[in-house]
Amino acid sequence: MQKSFYIKLLAPFLLGIFVFLSPRIWGVEAPDGLSINAWLYFSIFVSLTLGLILEPVSPALISLVAVTIAVVFKVGPVKSGDINANISSAASINWGLSGFSNSVVWLIFAAFTIGLGFSKTGLGKRLALYIVSKLGRSTLGLGYAIAIVDGILAPFIPSNAARSGGTVYPIVNSIAPMFDSSPQNNPRKIGAYLVWIGVSASCVTSSLFLTGQAPNPLALSIISKNGIGVVDWLGWFIAIAPIGIFLFILTPLITYFIYPPEVKGSKDIANWAKNEYENLGAITKAEIYMICIAIIGLILWVGSSFFKINATTTALIMLVLMTAAKTITWNDFLSNKQAWNTFVWFGTLVTMAAGLKNVGFLDYLAKNLGSNLVNIEPNFALILLVIFFSLLRYFFASGTAYVTATVAIFVTIANAIPGLDPALTMLVLCLPMGFMGILTPYGTGCSPLWFGSHFILGPKFFALGAIFGAIYLLIFIVLGIPWVKFIFSTLNLG
């Protein structure tokens, strides 16, 4: 056990050193087109990725170490890819801490505390018992219930982190203990299955609606600013609906077979849940307060464009109201270790993801990929672009960072390949952004929340992400692209 730990601990460092030194085999400091600073940063990022896969220590600590190394070497800030740039220590540490001012990071952090309110007041347990009493005869039915809740909220709440943290996660977090399933004991009994349903269903609904996640409209905004026509809400839904709905229906089912729970459900479970629900008695004042606060949050999330209130601001308002109503105490807030751990982890990952663009590594990728695709048959080039664009999610800690860093680059590539319609190409690339967030435990807003439950550890999360990502992407390529092409030309989308 000790030997395995040290291997996992040293492997990321050794890989980073190997990647950094590898160009010297050909007598150069870095690949042609990259500065040594950019290559050094890429080496640190590769090391970080392997560390998150092996997980020898807490992912938050791994990410913090990576940021610290980058700050020490002064690579990561804007223009730090230029070896002649004079990056000050102040600029370097300001970049290193920049992720902690990211609104998505705070939204995820707040979601953990909102979940605590559901748990502490007993509202989560009450909701969970009711759901189990209705659907507890089948664990598969429970999976579909979780997916349906997220699907109903997705068109109105443009944050999968808010949907999961405010509604779905507290329910799952209350159901699992009822079956003696916890991260430490019997995680596969039911908890791990429900957690994977939660994250995968949320990823699918993030693609199904333009407002399913914030990166979707952000991507269209960037594309539009680059002179390419984009679809509206209805056009997006029509383009993705057949594949999105199919994946939505398929997800709980394939999870049931690929990552099955030990508990399959029974009449006894449903009857027990019904009795337990009745034994709870009348709803308490704390639960009523929590319901009111949740409704206020839901109204503000759904009507964010009308009220001009950011989703993260809404989450913070809910925290203040929860504290004022004494559904949680300030000590509860301070002692929520999972929330603070995730805050550090995701804040550092957002910083590291931004550094790839800052040092020029993504521009280098775009230049080389574009030149290699110019002479490729357009349909094949489109498929390669979809695959490459999707796999880039491994390098990003949020959908927003991913869109910000890559979409403009792929607009340039789409314009450079003869025979491709740039508007169609960018629509095909953007539609799967939501469900390809399933690849990693840091790729989309809700992932750290579900991963932070610790029901599914890092290596297994990455493995499941790769399997489901491959299934989703294959179905989209085989069935989705032909449909998007057909509907694009028929309705003159874009």
UniProtKB/TrEMBL annotation:
Keyword Ligase on entry: no
Coiled coil: none
Lineage: Bacteria, Pseudomonadati, Campylobacterota, Epsilonproteobacteria, Campylobacterales
GO-annotated molecular function: transmembrane transporter activity
PANTHER family, sorted: DICARBOXYLATE TRANSPORTER 2.1, CHLOROPLASTIC
Protein name: DASS family sodium-coupled anion symporter
Keyword set includes Cell division: no
Protein family membership: Belongs to the SLC13A/DASS transporter (TC 2.A.47) family. DIT1 subfamily.
Subcellular location as annotated: Membrane
Any one Pfam family match given in the protein's UniProt record, by short name: Na_sulph_symp
UniProt membrane topology term: Multi-pass membrane protein
Gene Ontology terms: cellular component: membrane
Transmembrane segments: 37-54, 61-77, 97-118, 139-157, 190-212, 233-259, 288-307, 314-331, 343-366, 378-395, 401-417, 424-442, 462-484
InterPro entries according to UniProt: CitT-rel (IPR030676), SLC13A/DASS (IPR001898)
Keywords: Membrane, Transmembrane, Transmembrane helix
